[in-house]
Prior knowledge:
This protein is of the alpha/beta class.
Amino acid sequence: MPPAALLTRCTFPPAGTAVSCAVSGGADSTAMLALAVAANCHATAIHVDHGLRDDSAAEAAIVEATALRLGAAFRSVRVEVGRGPNQEARARAARYGALPTDVMTGHTADDQAETLIVNLLRGAASAGLGAMRPGPRRPILALRRHETAALCAELGLTVVHDPSNDDPRHLRNRVRHELLPLIADMSRRDPVPVLVRQADIARADADFLDDLAKEVDPTDAHSLMAAPKALARRAVRRWLSADHPPDAATVERVLAVAGGEAVATDIGGGKSVRRSRQKLSVVMSTTPDVGPTNTPNR
């Protein structure tokens, strides 16, 4: 399939826009780079070398050769991750820390379906079930993985296979290689379009409720208690999300404080939410952070 046939389903910015593309060398990111060039964007391929595999330098050379062939600029960035626990998460954090904030990534519809399932298994609420938000930063989110592979093959572009994508220790890989094929077999249909549609619906619903929740003052106990529970939860979560989004249990404890069941509760990070004269505030805890406890209303 020629690039022009795929571009109608992509969300690249207008022609002439300078864009940065995160290119690992895999088919998805390589296809994204080719499509960015076909969309007449001034593309720069950025390859991040984590130094975790002996052939990582060779992968960077492949991406550089691809960029040269397509007429894109190229830049390589080296980050140090090191082996050990949570290597995948640490590598991801290092990668995004080294990339421009507006970098484009080669996520596809298949990635979107996997993200919804992974978030569901981790207990995400409706915002998490909305998975990745479409837009210019994910310009090929409507394309399928088989389409990006076919495009690279048609253009004769060399792609890299990352063996970590086959490692069953990672939840996403098991979802990709085991769970989604099982769902397809059980439902006798391709589940990806269904899951992508569900993500779109969940995201739209979450956005609507978030807009309504902006009218709720999370520091006012009366306002929180008068609001529908779904909006009160969102107001508290938005209020406490400056450092890290609170989990559901923390949000419920804060609502218990607003409802008069306690005067304070720990929210982690050495901080507490306290109520005084029906106003809630975040304060530094005066006692050691021993866990998710509420101070009773005596």
